[in-house]
Write a structure and sequence with these properties.
By secondary structure, the chain is mainly α. It contains 14 helices and eight strands.
Amino acid sequence: MESHHILTLVIAFISVALVSGGGVFWVMRYLENQRNKDAQEKAQDVLSLANKEAEAIRSRTRVEVDNYRREKEIELKEELLRQKDALESEKRKAHDELNAKERSLNARQENLDQQATELRAQEKEINASRAELSNKIDRQDALNAELELKISEQERALYDVLNLSKEEAMKILMDKLDRELIEEQGALILKRENEAQEKCEEKARTLCLQALQRYAAAHTSEATTSTVDIPNDDMKGRVIGREGRNIRTFEKISGVDVIIDDTPGVIIVSAFDMVRRETARLALKRLIADGRIHPSRIEEIYSQAERDVNAFIQRAGMEACQEVDAHGLNDRLVTLLGRLYFRTSYSQNVLRHSVEVAFLSGMIAIEMGLDEKLARRCGLLHDIGKALDHEIEGGHPQIGAEVLKKYNEPTEVVQAALRHHEDTRDASPYTMIVAAADACSAARPGARRETMENYVKRMEDLEKIAMEIPCVNQAFAVQAGREMRVLVDSAVTTDESAAKICRDIAKALSERLQFPGEIKVTVIRETRTTEIAR
């Protein structure tokens, strides 16, 4: 019973299980179908959404592509416009250059046409001059033929009248012709010489005036003082020292003479050497200021003053070289230039005079188309010999030339120093320029002065030299010695011989006297006839 009941339960359970399994199966299948349907719907939604997004993306892409295409088109158009503007600018520039070249060619063509016209005019003038010259030659030939005929006639007349031989008649005739030719030659030479002199003087005056106007430096006469101020008369005794040992030591070391007299407040220093004189003056001034005056202190102060003066000399020489732009000078020449600061000529400071001559020489050289720097160098060093003429025998031109030659200065510089006071007509152009500039600097008003004794003596020397020439009746120095008026005897001189006398006087003045600038010599020949009416 129990077994049957269990079996029934088992069958029931199996039946229920089968029924439940089928239900579950259909439920699962239903659920699966439902899930598939939901999945398909979701897939459709996703696909639809993806299509929408893809369409949106395609729309955005087309817009971006269109925008990019438009931007590129705009950039291309701008680039084309820039290239077009550049081409237009180059075209305008090329057009302007062509116009300028065309104008230049037109101007050149006009110049060529004008030159051609001038050449044709000159050719006509040359042809006319050639024709005139041919006519003159023909006339001269005719005159020569006529002269030969007259000579032949005179020869025959001499033969007939004087019964002379041919040689004797020829000698008489040639003497007569020589006299006539000499007179004509003298007159022609005098005429040409006057014309050339007027032209040369005018040109030279123009060049010198232009140079002087361009170099308008103020000139002051400088002189080295020879006195030393002292505070009181007691200082004189201290300078003299016990039994004169201080003053003897000072004079022995410095090589100058110290004059102490009754003049109050002043001690006089005397020496021919200007550098030594300035060194002694400076040393004495420092000793008086210091107050300690004894032999050892004198040696110390003088050595210090000597070093200071030498340094000043070197500095003055360097400043002069820099001022005129003359570089590369030997140190010895620079020192000699500095020494010229303490040298004067007719109260004119020689160093400032040399600098002034250098500038004037450079300006004249520019006007003449020559080397300005070389001319300045010649002008700066032309008086270098004056720094040594107290130590070496000879004139400063010879001394300066030897020193410049020793230190390998150019030939033009040496010749300018040697010959700037001589006749420079056959010298180099730079020597002539330096001579002219030296005369301009020395002859400027206020540049130099001289004592009354020297002035009177120079006037007397000028008149004496002129009176030594034969046929001279009177001679007068006028214009402060810048001009000579000479009266000659008209009975024994002619116009031609008066010209020779004038030249001889000028040559004698140049050879025998030294003077700044130039002297104009005028010879006057006149005939006076006097009658008395009663």
